[in-house]
Amino acid sequence: MTIKVQQPTEPERVVLAAVGGPAAVGDDGIGWSDRSLLEELRALATSAGAEIVGEVYQRRDAADKTYFIGKGKAEELRDEVRRTGAELVVFDNDLSPAQGKNLEDLIGKRVLDRSELILDIFADRARTREAKLQVELAQLQYMLPRLKRMWTHLSRIRGGIGLRGPGETQLEVDRRVIRDRISTLKEKLGHIEERRRLQRKGRIDAWNVALVGYTNVGKSTIMNRLSGERLGVEDRLFATLDATTRRVRLPDGEEMLLTDTVGFIRNLPHHLVASFRATLEEVVHADLLLHVIDVSEPDHEAQTRVVRDVLVALEAADTPTLLVFNKFDRIRPAERAGVRARVLAEHPGAVMASAVDARGLVALEEAMSRVLRAEELEVRVSLPLSASRDLARLYEVGEVIGREYTDDAVLVDLRVRPDVVERLRQEGVVVRVAS
Ligand SMILES: Nc1nc2c(ncn2[C@@H]2O[C@H](COP(=O)(O)OP(=O)(O)OP(=O)(O)O)[C@@H](O)[C@H]2O)c(=O)[nH]1
Ligand SMILES: [Mg+2]
Q: Are 50 and 148 members of one domain?
């Protein structure tokens, strides 16, 4: 079976359509300015390789049942498509299967909604086996309730059959094939997740720190700065899809495993969040999250809330988090003091950064050391005098701050990460813990 979104080699000519206002408030209940809705849609479409030839925008209090956008605007959209010779319409909103079909019938061209567009970008960017499996899973789950409409695309592409869809028997067969494939994908991803879990268990010698944030805010740039690596940094959305982990040592000596992750976006398709859960496990298990925010983005507060909501969904909202207000260099010099004061008043402990400029990260490194040190626990351990190897190991896992001998034991006071305390507890050598 070959139901697949076509990957054109030439950029596709696209008309963008967006509904703003109360109708566009997403599941997250967050309202956005008209300007940033359109700008983000343009960035998404361009990231998908589209050539934008027209735009239709409407503010609405509620979505239209038939077309999402109003009927008059839908006709305007059709005329714009004809005038520009566009091959595709991309909608900023998520359409119900019926709305998608009605629009296609009216316009006579393919209509992609927001989820499909994002899935398309993800499919194009996926490099590792895991990312590919995750995207395919999300695409199939999106497709299942829309099979009939997808079939109509295919008949159009093949020509001849016109708007006639497949027979019900054919649809049933396809649905079963897709369901089987979904089970297989879930099983394969389960194996990969299990392997990851084992790897993580074997890796308890350093802090786990994860970079999270809205897409294109500078996560990979910060990762590169801190680790001296050259990972892909691009001024396009979703440059990073795979979690990459690097060992990083802060100037004060703290060692960590730093993970760069996929960026979030408003109304991220649910299927995608679910499928990327395994990749995002690194976020779930982190000791510290660096939540990167593009302070030069007018809607950055709304973006921040989107990221928080995803963290809540991942059950990672309680993890210690350092807010990093990046791209501070893009604020006009005359406004910097004001912006800094406002951000720090609202988010005490936040860091202003400018990752394009190496100097912009000194404050971040200091803040990370401070937070990590504050998470450490002071613990007293008792070892038999004969256990010199265990004693040597204590020097590796933490900072020894005192040592005292009794007749048959050595009492060692040290500062360690909470997971090390857990391990020492299991070994039965912990005498007392103070934070
Ligand atoms: N002016 C300015 N640009 C920055 C800064 N940090 C990153 N950028 C630019 O912002 C763009 C996106 O940076 P990335 O590091 O790829 O962003 P990301 O958060 O990893 O993005 P995704 O992986 O797509 O989610 C690139 O063009 C960077 O050069 C900064 O501090 N100032
Ligand atoms: Mg990135």
A: yes
Tokens 């990752």 label which residue?
355
pLDDT at 232 (0 to 100) = 66
Residue 421: helix, strand or coil by DSSP?
helix
Q: What is the mean pLDDT of residues 275-293?
A: 85
Domain-embedded: residue 158? yes
Stated as kind and residue range, the H or E segment containing 359 is none
Question: Do residues 73 and 218 both lie within one domain?
Answer: no
Q: What is the DSSP letter of 68?
A: B
* Domain total in the chain: 3
pTM value is 0.83
Q: Are the CB atoms for 117 and 162 separated by under 8 Å?
A: no
CATH number, domain of 118, equals 3.40.50.11060
Ligand closest to 303 (CA) is: 1
User: Do residues 281 and 161 both lie within one domain?
Assistant: no
214 belongs to a structural domain: yes
pLDDT category of residue 336 using cuts at 50, 70 and 90: very high
Question: In the structure encoding, which two tokens stand for residue 412, read together?
Answer: 């060692």
Determine the distance separating the centroid of ligand 1 and the alpha carbon of 219, expressed in angstroms: 7
CB proximity list for 412: less than 8 A, separation 6 or greater: 380, 381, 382, 383, 391, 394, 400, 402, 403, 404
Distances (CA, A) of 37 to 91, 114, 233, 295: 11, 12, 23, 17
Residues having CB within 6 Å of any atom of ligand 1: 213, 215-221, 233-235, 237-240, 263, 326-327, 329-330, 354-356
Same domain, 410 and 261: no
If you average pLDDT over residues 15-32, what whole number do you get?
Answer: 73
Domain boundary (117, 146, 168) is at 168
Tell which atom from ligand 1 comes closest to the C-alpha of 232. Answer: 16
Q: How far is the CA of 212 from the centre of ligand 2 (A)?
A: 10
Q: Containing domain of residue 424, as a range?
A: 376-434
pLDDT at 252: 84
**191 found inside a domain:** no
Higher pLDDT, residue 386 or 201: 386
Contacts 24+ apart (CB under 8 A), 65-73: 65/99, 66/98, 66/99, 66/102, 67/99, 67/102, 67/103, 67/106, 68/19, 68/93, 68/95, 68/99, 68/103, 69/17, 69/19
